[in-house]
Protein backbone atom coordinates (compact mmCIF):
# COMPACT_ATOMS: atom_id res chain seq x y z
CA UNK A 1 0.00 0.00 0.00
CA UNK A 2 1.17 3.51 -0.79
CA UNK A 3 2.60 5.66 1.99
CA UNK A 4 -0.37 7.99 2.40
CA UNK A 5 1.58 10.33 4.68
CA UNK A 6 4.19 11.36 2.17
CA UNK A 7 2.40 13.76 -0.16
CA UNK A 8 0.51 17.04 0.09
CA UNK A 9 -1.59 16.20 -2.99
CA UNK A 10 -4.78 14.22 -2.59
CA UNK A 11 -4.18 12.28 -5.79
CA UNK A 12 -0.43 11.72 -5.81
CA UNK A 13 1.03 9.42 -3.20
CA UNK A 14 3.76 7.71 -5.19
CA UNK A 15 5.97 8.39 -8.19
CA UNK A 16 3.79 5.84 -9.99
CA UNK A 17 0.77 8.11 -9.41
CA UNK A 18 2.76 11.08 -10.72
CA UNK A 19 3.80 9.16 -13.85
CA UNK A 20 0.18 8.22 -14.55
CA UNK A 21 -1.37 11.63 -13.90
CA UNK A 22 1.49 13.72 -15.35
CA UNK A 23 1.97 11.66 -18.51
CA UNK A 24 -1.73 11.61 -19.29
CA UNK A 25 -1.83 15.41 -19.43
CA UNK A 26 0.58 15.37 -22.39
CA UNK A 27 -0.14 14.93 -26.11
CA UNK A 28 0.44 11.27 -27.01
CA UNK A 29 3.55 12.09 -29.08
CA UNK A 30 5.25 13.81 -26.13
CA UNK A 31 4.13 11.18 -23.64
CA UNK A 32 5.61 8.44 -25.83
CA UNK A 33 8.84 10.41 -26.35
CA UNK A 34 9.40 10.73 -22.63
CA UNK A 35 8.21 7.33 -21.45
CA UNK A 36 9.26 4.88 -24.16
CA UNK A 37 12.62 3.26 -24.85
CA UNK A 38 14.59 1.24 -27.37
CA UNK A 39 13.27 -1.75 -29.35
CA UNK A 40 11.24 -4.18 -27.19
CA UNK A 41 11.69 -2.14 -24.02
CA UNK A 42 13.34 -5.07 -22.23
CA UNK A 43 16.08 -2.98 -20.63
CA UNK A 44 13.64 -0.16 -19.86
CA UNK A 45 11.45 -2.54 -17.93
CA UNK A 46 14.35 -4.39 -16.29
CA UNK A 47 15.81 -1.13 -14.93
CA UNK A 48 12.76 -0.92 -12.68
CA UNK A 49 12.33 -4.66 -12.09
CA UNK A 50 15.92 -5.00 -10.84
CA UNK A 51 15.10 -2.91 -7.79
CA UNK A 52 12.55 -5.56 -6.79
CA UNK A 53 15.10 -8.39 -7.01
CA UNK A 54 17.16 -6.84 -4.23
CA UNK A 55 15.79 -6.78 -0.68
CA UNK A 56 16.68 -4.57 2.25
CA UNK A 57 18.21 -6.17 5.39
CA UNK A 58 17.11 -3.84 8.22
CA UNK A 59 19.00 -3.68 11.50
CA UNK A 60 17.02 -3.13 14.69
CA UNK A 61 17.62 -1.17 17.89
CA UNK A 62 19.70 1.48 16.17
CA UNK A 63 19.18 5.04 17.37
CA UNK A 64 17.57 6.75 14.39
CA UNK A 65 16.14 9.67 16.31
CA UNK A 66 17.92 12.14 14.05
CA UNK A 67 18.22 10.72 10.54
CA UNK A 68 20.65 12.74 8.42
CA UNK A 69 20.15 12.31 4.64
CA UNK A 70 22.91 14.75 3.62
CA UNK A 71 25.48 13.71 1.03
CA UNK A 72 27.73 15.45 -1.50
CA UNK A 73 28.62 15.64 -5.17
CA UNK A 74 31.79 17.30 -6.56
CA UNK A 75 32.59 18.13 -2.93
CA UNK A 76 29.39 20.20 -2.64
CA UNK A 77 26.84 19.28 0.02
CA UNK A 78 23.47 17.94 -1.12
CA UNK A 79 20.37 17.39 0.99
CA UNK A 80 20.07 13.87 -0.43
CA UNK A 81 22.32 11.57 -2.46
CA UNK A 82 20.04 12.39 -5.40
CA UNK A 83 19.91 14.58 -8.48
CA UNK A 84 18.34 15.06 -11.91
CA UNK A 85 19.86 13.25 -14.90
CA UNK A 86 20.35 15.38 -18.01
CA UNK A 87 17.25 14.86 -20.14
CA UNK A 88 16.29 16.68 -23.32
CA UNK A 89 13.43 19.08 -23.93
CA UNK A 90 11.75 19.69 -20.60
CA UNK A 91 9.61 22.39 -22.24
CA UNK A 92 7.67 19.67 -24.05
CA UNK A 93 6.42 18.68 -20.60
CA UNK A 94 5.71 22.21 -19.33
CA UNK A 95 6.39 25.73 -20.70
CA UNK A 96 8.58 26.55 -17.70
CA UNK A 97 10.83 23.63 -18.68
CA UNK A 98 14.33 23.43 -17.25
CA UNK A 99 13.91 26.69 -15.31
CA UNK A 100 11.23 25.01 -13.19
CA UNK A 101 13.26 21.84 -12.81
CA UNK A 102 16.31 23.85 -11.78
CA UNK A 103 14.38 25.86 -9.20
CA UNK A 104 12.94 22.70 -7.68
CA UNK A 105 16.39 21.09 -7.50
CA UNK A 106 17.85 24.24 -5.92
CA UNK A 107 15.03 24.51 -3.39
CA UNK A 108 15.57 20.92 -2.28
CA UNK A 109 19.38 21.21 -2.33
CA UNK A 110 19.94 18.37 -4.78
CA UNK A 111 22.11 18.12 -7.90
CA UNK A 112 20.86 19.33 -11.30
CA UNK A 113 22.09 17.89 -14.61
CA UNK A 114 21.41 19.77 -17.85
CA UNK A 115 21.14 18.09 -21.27
CA UNK A 116 22.98 19.31 -24.37
CA UNK A 117 19.46 19.20 -25.83
CA UNK A 118 17.81 21.33 -23.18
CA UNK A 119 15.12 23.83 -24.14
CA UNK A 120 16.54 26.58 -21.94
CA UNK A 121 20.02 28.10 -21.97
CA UNK A 122 22.55 26.81 -19.49
CA UNK A 123 23.10 30.37 -18.27
CA UNK A 124 19.43 30.79 -17.31
CA UNK A 125 19.24 27.33 -15.76
CA UNK A 126 22.42 27.71 -13.71
CA UNK A 127 21.33 31.15 -12.47
CA UNK A 128 18.51 29.46 -10.53
CA UNK A 129 21.07 27.67 -8.36
CA UNK A 130 21.31 28.16 -4.63
CA UNK A 131 24.70 26.56 -4.05
CA UNK A 132 23.54 23.09 -5.06
CA UNK A 133 25.74 21.21 -7.58
CA UNK A 134 25.11 21.68 -11.31
CA UNK A 135 26.53 19.61 -14.15
CA UNK A 136 26.33 19.74 -17.92
CA UNK A 137 26.03 16.73 -20.23
CA UNK A 138 28.38 17.29 -23.17
CA UNK A 139 28.41 15.27 -26.39
CA UNK A 140 31.84 15.36 -28.03
CA UNK A 141 30.75 16.36 -31.54
CA UNK A 142 32.53 16.09 -34.88
CA UNK A 143 32.70 19.87 -34.77
CA UNK A 144 34.95 20.17 -31.72
CA UNK A 145 34.57 23.97 -31.66
CA UNK A 146 30.90 23.53 -30.71
CA UNK A 147 31.88 21.22 -27.86
CA UNK A 148 34.57 23.68 -26.78
CA UNK A 149 31.99 26.47 -26.80
CA UNK A 150 29.76 24.41 -24.47
CA UNK A 151 32.71 23.74 -22.16
CA UNK A 152 33.62 27.46 -22.03
CA UNK A 153 30.04 28.49 -21.28
CA UNK A 154 29.72 25.78 -18.64
CA UNK A 155 32.92 26.97 -16.97
CA UNK A 156 31.71 30.55 -16.98
CA UNK A 157 28.49 29.44 -15.29
CA UNK A 158 30.40 27.32 -12.86
CA UNK A 159 28.73 24.46 -14.07
CA UNK A 160 25.81 23.93 -20.12
CA UNK A 161 23.43 23.49 -26.93
CA UNK A 162 23.93 22.29 -31.04
CA UNK A 163 24.60 18.66 -33.15
CA UNK A 164 26.48 15.49 -35.66
CA UNK A 165 27.55 12.90 -33.11
CA UNK A 166 31.11 11.62 -33.54
CA UNK A 167 31.19 7.81 -33.74
CA UNK A 168 35.00 7.73 -33.88
CA UNK A 169 35.53 8.73 -30.25
CA UNK A 170 38.06 6.61 -28.34
CA UNK A 171 39.81 6.63 -24.96
CA UNK A 172 43.22 7.70 -26.31
CA UNK A 173 42.08 10.93 -27.92
CA UNK A 174 38.79 11.95 -26.32
CA UNK A 175 39.58 12.00 -22.62
CA UNK A 176 43.01 13.73 -22.92
CA UNK A 177 41.39 16.31 -25.28
CA UNK A 178 38.61 17.00 -22.78
CA UNK A 179 41.04 17.22 -19.87
CA UNK A 180 43.26 19.61 -21.81
CA UNK A 181 40.30 21.86 -22.53
CA UNK A 182 38.57 22.25 -19.19
CA UNK A 183 39.32 22.61 -15.54
CA UNK A 184 35.90 21.16 -14.63
CA UNK A 185 35.49 17.61 -13.42
CA UNK A 186 34.91 15.09 -16.23
CA UNK A 187 32.48 12.24 -15.55
CA UNK A 188 31.59 9.55 -18.05
CA UNK A 189 27.90 8.72 -18.34
CA UNK A 190 26.83 5.49 -19.96
CA UNK A 191 29.30 3.11 -18.34
CA UNK A 192 28.24 -0.56 -17.95
CA UNK A 193 31.34 -2.66 -17.28
CA UNK A 194 34.25 -3.18 -14.91
CA UNK A 195 36.63 -2.98 -17.91
CA UNK A 196 35.48 0.54 -18.75
CA UNK A 197 35.57 1.66 -15.13
CA UNK A 198 39.20 0.49 -15.01
CA UNK A 199 39.92 2.54 -18.16
CA UNK A 200 38.14 5.55 -16.68
CA UNK A 201 40.46 5.35 -13.67
CA UNK A 202 43.51 4.88 -15.93
CA UNK A 203 42.62 7.95 -18.02
CA UNK A 204 42.02 10.13 -14.97
CA UNK A 205 38.27 10.55 -15.29
CA UNK A 206 36.79 12.07 -12.12
CA UNK A 207 33.72 9.82 -11.86
CA UNK A 208 31.37 7.57 -13.80
CA UNK A 209 27.61 7.23 -14.10
CA UNK A 210 26.38 3.69 -14.59
CA UNK A 211 23.61 4.38 -17.09
CA UNK A 212 21.91 2.71 -20.06
CA UNK A 213 20.23 5.99 -21.00
CA UNK A 214 17.01 4.95 -19.31
CA UNK A 215 16.65 1.91 -21.63
CA UNK A 216 16.64 4.21 -24.68
CA UNK A 217 19.81 3.04 -26.47
CA UNK A 218 20.87 -0.63 -26.65
CA UNK A 219 18.00 -2.92 -25.68
CA UNK A 220 19.27 -6.12 -24.07
CA UNK A 221 21.90 -4.61 -21.79
CA UNK A 222 21.57 -5.30 -18.06
CA UNK A 223 19.59 -3.20 -15.66
CA UNK A 224 21.87 -0.53 -14.26
CA UNK A 225 21.46 -1.85 -10.72
CA UNK A 226 22.92 -5.19 -11.89
CA UNK A 227 25.80 -3.44 -13.73
CA UNK A 228 26.52 -1.32 -10.69
CA UNK A 229 27.92 -4.23 -8.70
CA UNK A 230 30.88 -4.95 -11.01
CA UNK A 231 31.50 -1.25 -11.62
CA UNK A 232 31.81 -0.50 -7.91
CA UNK A 233 34.29 -3.34 -7.44
CA UNK A 234 36.38 -2.08 -10.37
CA UNK A 235 36.36 1.49 -9.08
CA UNK A 236 37.66 0.24 -5.73
CA UNK A 237 36.90 3.56 -4.09
CA UNK A 238 39.31 5.39 -6.42
CA UNK A 239 36.54 7.28 -8.24
CA UNK A 240 32.86 7.74 -7.34
CA UNK A 241 30.26 5.63 -9.14
CA UNK A 242 26.83 7.22 -9.64
CA UNK A 243 23.81 5.46 -11.13
CA UNK A 244 20.59 6.25 -13.01
CA UNK A 245 17.79 4.21 -14.59
CA UNK A 246 14.64 2.84 -13.00
CA UNK A 247 14.82 4.66 -9.68
CA UNK A 248 11.22 5.32 -8.63
CA UNK A 249 11.18 5.13 -4.82
CA UNK A 250 13.12 6.17 -1.77
CA UNK A 251 13.84 2.50 -1.15
CA UNK A 252 15.44 2.31 -4.63
CA UNK A 253 17.86 5.07 -3.65
CA UNK A 254 18.68 3.13 -0.49
CA UNK A 255 19.31 -0.09 -2.46
CA UNK A 256 21.62 1.63 -4.95
CA UNK A 257 23.64 3.18 -2.13
CA UNK A 258 23.84 -0.17 -0.34
CA UNK A 259 25.33 -1.65 -3.53
CA UNK A 260 27.98 1.05 -3.56
CA UNK A 261 26.56 3.95 -5.59
CA UNK A 262 27.83 7.35 -4.48
CA UNK A 263 24.92 9.33 -5.97
CA UNK A 264 21.57 8.53 -7.61
CA UNK A 265 20.05 10.35 -10.60
CA UNK A 266 16.54 10.35 -12.01
CA UNK A 267 15.62 11.33 -15.57
CA UNK A 268 11.90 10.84 -16.13
CA UNK A 269 10.69 11.67 -12.61
CA UNK A 270 11.19 15.46 -12.89
CA UNK A 271 9.57 15.31 -16.35
CA UNK A 272 6.47 13.61 -14.90
CA UNK A 273 6.42 16.24 -12.16
CA UNK A 274 6.69 19.05 -14.71
CA UNK A 275 3.89 17.57 -16.80
CA UNK A 276 1.70 17.24 -13.73
CA UNK A 277 2.11 20.76 -12.34
CA UNK A 278 5.28 22.57 -13.42
CA UNK A 279 7.74 23.44 -10.66
CA UNK A 280 5.23 22.44 -7.96
CA UNK A 281 4.95 19.01 -9.59
CA UNK A 282 8.73 18.54 -9.53
CA UNK A 283 8.76 19.61 -5.89
CA UNK A 284 5.99 17.13 -5.16
CA UNK A 285 8.13 14.37 -6.67
CA UNK A 286 11.06 15.41 -4.52
CA UNK A 287 8.89 15.54 -1.40
CA UNK A 288 7.74 11.99 -2.04
CA UNK A 289 11.28 10.70 -2.65
CA UNK A 290 12.71 12.58 0.33
CA UNK A 291 10.06 11.26 2.73
CA UNK A 292 10.32 7.72 1.41
CA UNK A 293 14.11 7.73 1.64
CA UNK A 294 14.16 9.16 5.16
CA UNK A 295 11.61 6.60 6.37
CA UNK A 296 13.57 3.81 4.69
CA UNK A 297 16.80 4.86 6.39
CA UNK A 298 15.11 4.93 9.80
CA UNK A 299 13.37 1.57 9.37
CA UNK A 300 16.57 -0.04 8.07
CA UNK A 301 18.54 1.26 11.05
CA UNK A 302 20.74 3.78 9.25
CA UNK A 303 21.20 7.25 10.74
CA UNK A 304 23.59 8.67 8.14
CA UNK A 305 24.36 7.93 4.50
CA UNK A 306 27.70 6.36 5.53
CA UNK A 307 25.76 3.85 7.64
CA UNK A 308 24.18 2.36 4.49
CA UNK A 309 26.37 -0.61 3.53
CA UNK A 310 26.43 -3.89 1.62
CA UNK A 311 25.22 -5.52 4.86
CA UNK A 312 21.87 -3.78 4.33
CA UNK A 313 21.00 -5.53 1.07
CA UNK A 314 20.44 -9.03 -0.18
CA UNK A 315 19.51 -10.61 -3.50
CA UNK A 316 16.45 -12.69 -4.43
CA UNK A 317 17.85 -15.37 -6.75
CA UNK A 318 15.92 -17.14 -9.53
CA UNK A 319 14.81 -19.87 -7.10
CA UNK A 320 13.25 -17.25 -4.81
CA UNK A 321 15.98 -17.69 -2.20
CA UNK A 322 17.54 -14.72 -0.49
CA UNK A 323 21.24 -14.97 -1.30
CA UNK A 324 23.76 -13.03 0.76
CA UNK A 325 25.85 -10.70 -1.42
C1 LIG B 1 13.10 12.09 -22.54
C2 LIG B 1 14.52 11.77 -22.21
C3 LIG B 1 15.54 12.53 -22.78
C4 LIG B 1 16.87 12.24 -22.45
N1 LIG B 1 17.85 13.05 -22.95
C5 LIG B 1 19.14 12.81 -22.61
C6 LIG B 1 20.16 13.71 -23.06
O1 LIG B 1 19.90 14.68 -23.77
N2 LIG B 1 21.43 13.43 -22.69
C7 LIG B 1 21.74 12.34 -21.87
O2 LIG B 1 22.90 12.13 -21.55
N3 LIG B 1 20.78 11.52 -21.42
C8 LIG B 1 19.49 11.74 -21.75
N4 LIG B 1 18.52 10.91 -21.27
C9 LIG B 1 18.87 9.80 -20.37
C10 LIG B 1 18.84 10.30 -18.91
O3 LIG B 1 19.95 11.13 -18.65
C11 LIG B 1 18.93 9.14 -17.91
O4 LIG B 1 20.03 8.35 -18.22
C12 LIG B 1 17.68 8.26 -17.87
O5 LIG B 1 16.50 9.05 -18.03
C13 LIG B 1 17.62 7.55 -16.52
O6 LIG B 1 16.55 6.69 -16.45
P1 LIG B 1 15.16 7.06 -15.72
O7 LIG B 1 14.40 7.94 -16.67
O8 LIG B 1 14.55 5.71 -15.53
O9 LIG B 1 15.50 7.76 -14.44
C14 LIG B 1 17.18 11.17 -21.58
C15 LIG B 1 16.16 10.42 -21.03
C16 LIG B 1 14.85 10.69 -21.32
C17 LIG B 1 13.76 9.87 -20.70
C1 LIG C 1 18.92 15.62 -32.13
C2 LIG C 1 18.31 15.70 -30.75
C3 LIG C 1 18.68 14.49 -29.97
C4 LIG C 1 18.08 14.55 -28.57
C5 LIG C 1 18.42 13.28 -27.86
C6 LIG C 1 17.88 13.31 -26.48
C7 LIG C 1 18.05 11.97 -25.86
O1 LIG C 1 19.16 11.63 -25.49
C8 LIG C 1 16.90 11.09 -25.69
O2 LIG C 1 17.08 9.98 -25.15
O3 LIG C 1 15.78 11.45 -26.11
Automatic annotation (TrEMBL):
InterPro entries, per database record: Aldolase_TIM, Alpha-hydoxy_acid_DH_FMN, FMN-dep_DH, FMN_HAD, FMN_hydac_DH_AS
Residues annotated for glyoxylate binding in this entry: 33, 213, 216
Protein name: FMN hydroxy acid dehydrogenase domain-containing protein
Active site: 213 (proton acceptor)
Needed cofactors: FMN
Transmembrane regions listed in the UniProt entry: none
Chain residues that bind FMN: 86-88, 115, 137, 189, 211, 244-248, 267-268
Organism from which the protein derives: Pseudomassariella vexata
SUPFAM superfamilies: FMN-linked oxidoreductases
Record Gene3D superfamilies: Aldolase class I
UniProt keywords, alphabetically: Flavoprotein, FMN, Oxidoreductase
Pfam families noted in UniProt: FMN_dh
GO MF term list: FMN binding; oxidoreductase activity
Domain FMN hydroxy acid dehydrogenase: 7-318
Family: Belongs to the FMN-dependent alpha-hydroxy acid dehydrogenase family.
